[in-house]
Amino acid sequence: EAMEDRQLELALKQYSILTQDEHATFEMFDGLVRTNLALSQTEEAYVQARDAVQRWPKDARTHELLGLAAQESGRTEEAKKSYQKALELNPYLVAAEEQLDALSTEE
User: Fold this and answer.
1) CB-CB contact of 102 with 66 (8 Å)
2) Cα distance between residue 28 and residue 50, in whole Å
3) pLDDT for position 44
4) What is the reported pTM?
5) DSSP secondary structure of 31-53
6) Can you list the residues of the chain whose pLDDT is less than 70?
7) Contact, 39 vs 9, CB < 8 A?
8) 50 contacts 35 by C-beta, under 8 angstroms
């Protein structure tokens, strides 16, 4: 497990560097956010997911990613709104729909 954590931390450093570039892609931000979540760094993941939404506001995947980060950091209402926005932009995002349904049934 220590080796896995070290590998995740190395990946995190690499993603952090890559996402600073003006030509960074969504996939780089996705990796950064998910790596932070894997390391239980939910606040960092949330901030980075918000950055992704600011860069690509019309990309449904960024809203889905923000929904995930918001959900993991305890921001349930924001997570729901993010998943809803993702589905408005792309109604075929099955994962966003499933997460939204799961959050709605938790109430």
Assistant:
1) no
2) 14
3) 97
4) 0.90
5) HHHHHHHHTT-HHHHHHHHHHHH
6) 1-3, 107
7) yes
8) no
